Amino acid sequence: MQLSTEDAKLVTLARATRARIGAAEGAAVRDQDGRTYAAATVDLPSLQLSALQVCVAMAVASGAKRLAAAVALGESGVLADADRAALADLGGSDLPIHLGDPRGTITTSLPE
Known about the structure:
Elements: H1 5-21, E1 25-31, E2 36-40, E3 42-44, E4 47-49, H2 51-61, E5 67-74, H3 81-91, E6 97-100, E7 106-110
Parallel strand pairs: 5-6
Antiparallel strand pairs: 1-2, 1-5, 3-4, 6-7
Helix pairs in contact: 2-3
């Protein structure tokens, strides 16, 4: 699967962030201004967030109004409903979302 150069950078960020702490997932998003946000899964006794949810929260907290692309890397290879909803809040239904394994191999790109 051929990704744009900018989306390939998101894969690199997501992979490195996940690997750095050994998290279940790594994710990265790019906003309308080209700023990127990368995060890993948060799994605390009092707070559980997917890597994509953390990325969306970081983008919103930084003032982003719209997302341009998203990448999530993990074992499941599936976009959870909560992640889809969070991405739709800032990205709309046509947001390019790339899903892949922990090594960064993209297996699915949405919308198809």
